Amino acid sequence: MRAHASPSFPRLSDTRRRYIHRALLRWYAQHGRDLPWRNSDDPYFVLISEYMLQQTQVARVLKHFPLWIKRFPTTAALARASRRAVLLAWSGLGYNRRALSLHAAAKEIMERHNGRIPSDIEALKALPGFGPYTAHAVTCFGYRHRVPIVDVNIRRVLSRLSRNMRETDAMLPEAEVWTLAASLLPPRAFYNWNQGLMDLGATICTARQPDCEHCPLSTECPSAGRLQSAPARSASVIRETPRRIYRGRVIEHLRHRPRHCDRADRLCILLFSSSDAVEQSRVLDILATLQNDGMIRATAGRRPVEDIGTFTDSLDMLHICLTD
Ligand code: SF4
């Protein structure tokens, strides 16, 4: 987080600041979302939920969170599990690399922090897969330390609340919003404040259709009722399927295969409906990235293939399995 020298809300008097705090906290008491990880002070629950929420919608996390906690109830249980078990349990959450980062973080917590999830932000940021948001969230929600939090929802709310934004997709630079968030943090009710800001961004001050009429902060917000939809992007651009989609399809397919294995030529057909030379080279490229990330292992006959990127034999010789 980069510090900014300039004050964040230059014309915000103490009275207005207190009003904003009271208005949001009152709204949160009535309308805050009932999320299972909020009913726990266990930093492990917070860590898991925040990890899952990094790129997955709340509704989906709500479904998977209890299953995960049942399967891996503690950091130690998660660290002990095989990578394959973790990847299998992550099914349905997307961005599978996060599952392996989470597993690596659990191992590191066991080995370097005696099994205790750190409360120190810098120690958390040193763990695999932790950015500033996750580190601050674990510190605030798991240990009730008074620190600001900026996720995409909070960034949007604070951008609109502090400046006269004209378009719905306009936001201040992230570093500036961290400073705003720190400057507006209430002295005591910071936990509910941070949760409330996130909920307001998720339900009222949304990306496309902010409901300023029902917003508890509308009288203090310079953007209230003024936001115009951003111009639609050109529909004529044909986007290529991102590589991560193909990677996700391979892992999902292997999750459901007997012994979690399949031949590379079948994977090629699965992804591209054909296996001519161009597609073969594409599938090898995709498989090589999965191998690099430790998600799969490859064999040809009984021989391990250490580097799929250099494989030149026929694809039907190449056997791909989910990592052990
Ligand atoms: S008044 Fe509108 S733009 Fe301002 S914080 Fe509330 S919902 Fe967002």
Write the layout of secondary structure elements.
Blueprint: H1 14-31, H2 43-53, H3 58-71, H4 75-80, H5 83-89, H6 97-112, H7 121-125, H8 132-143, H9 152-162, H10 174-184, H11 190-203, H12 243-255, E1 261-263, H13 264-272, H14 277-292, E2 296-300, E3 303-304, E4 318-322
Helix pairs in contact: 1-11, 2-3, 2-8, 9-10, 9-11, 12-14, 13-14
The structure holds iron/sulfur cluster.
The site of iron/sulfur cluster has 14 residues, from helix 9.
From the structure above, extract its key features.
single chain; 324 residues; mainly alpha; Endonuclease III, domain 1; Arc Repressor Mutant, subunit A; 2 domains; four-stranded antiparallel β-sheet; 4 strands; binds iron/sulfur cluster
Structure description:
A hairpin with a 2-residue loop joins β2 and β3 (303-304). It is built from 14 helices and 4 strands. α2 (43-53) packs across α3 (58-71). It has a 4-stranded antiparallel sheet with strand order 1-4-2-3. The protein folds into 2 domains: 14-220, Endonuclease III, domain 1 (Orthogonal Bundle), CATH 1.10.340; 243-322, Orthogonal Bundle (Arc Repressor Mutant, subunit A). It is mainly alpha-helical and 324 residues long. Helices cover 50% and strands 5% of the residues. The structure holds iron/sulfur cluster. Residues 157, 160-161, 204-205, 210, 212, 215, 217-218, 221, 223-224, 227 line the site of iron/sulfur cluster. Residues 157, 160-161, 204-205, 210, 212, 215, 217-218, 221, 223-224, 227 line the site of iron/sulfur cluster (SF4).
